[in-house]
Amino acid sequence: MAFEGSDGDRLAIRERIEAYSDAVFRRDADAWIGNWAEGSTWSLPGIEVSGRDNIKAAWQAAMASFPLAALFVQVGSIAVEGDAAAARTYTQEVLTDPNGAVRRIVGAYDDELVKQDGRWLFRRREYRILHDTAEG
């Protein structure tokens, strides 16, 4: 998969990925879930959650464990075909726990997106950890 599709669609998908990351930094659950389509699925190591309400609740529970959650993203590919798209995004996360211990994770998302009412939204995000380091 490479970069395929119109510039406008690929830019809108990049902006969706960046809005997701921004919502994590700001810990804004409403903005974060606003990136997801109805009937979407979030797949993480050991867990798969479907439906926006369930996805939002799982994210809020996970975020409650970290006083700091920073998510940096790098788009690896975007392929648009009509009103559907596939993307790959690499991530760097910095997480702190309540005791100040730091966890650094390099990961990747394989994404399926759908264009609804002129907006690109995540239909499925499948995350995998590529490297995980804990400090302190």
Automatic annotation (TrEMBL):
It comes from the Bacteria. Residues 9-125 form the SnoaL-like domain. InterPro entries: NTF2-like_dom_sf, SnoaL-like, Steroid_delta5-4_isomerase. Coiled coil: none annotated. It holds the Pfam family SnoaL_4. This is Nuclear transport factor 2 family protein. It comes from Phenylobacterium montanum.
